[in-house]
């Protein structure tokens, strides 16, 4: 297997020596006071910020497979809360995308790939039968819109999330960058203003 490490380190040395970093200097606080949860898909690395008119320093971006909050007290939700409470973000965007790899993940096939890559079947069986639902943990989703809305709902109703924080849900086309609005957090807060002030 070819590693990119030496190529990356060589480029990095030149990058630092020629001070190319200077155009990226900013603070740790997002200028546009927002945090985005999105997918780790390679097509979105540059496309998503460009499609949203975001530059380095504008937003906090949290990425994982499928742009999902799969556990209310997992690392993704913790990152969102850190962005809100410690890094001054006051708006949350959950942005999934069409043609997402997580929509087609078959846990049994992935477990087969683990075996092919040298993970011992005894280890896989121990994890499976230790009370942890490995298959469910690896399972993808069928509909990206429903997945985004589920994450929006979980974030919006999280007991530690400030109730007046708008949480938006969108889906992006990974080819064109077109955004489709699924959930407008501002409208939600306006429609539920009596509950939101509690």
Automatic annotation (TrEMBL):
Q: Does the keyword Methyltransferase apply?
A: no
Under Enzyme Commission nomenclature, its number is: 4.2.1.1
What broad class of enzyme is this?
Answer: lyase
Supply the InterPro entries for this chain. Answer: Carbonic_anhydrase, Carbonic_anhydrase_sf
Which reaction(s) does its UniProt entry say it catalyses? hydrogencarbonate + H(+) = CO2 + H2O
> Which keywords does this Swiss-Prot/TrEMBL entry list?
Metal-binding, Zinc
**Pfam families named in the record:** Pro_CA
Entry keyword annotation includes Kinase: no
- What SMART domains has UniProt attached to this entry? Pro_CA
Q: Which family does it belong to?
A: Belongs to the beta-class carbonic anhydrase family.
This chain belongs to the protein called carbonic anhydrase
- Taxonomic source organism: Ureibacillus aquaedulcis
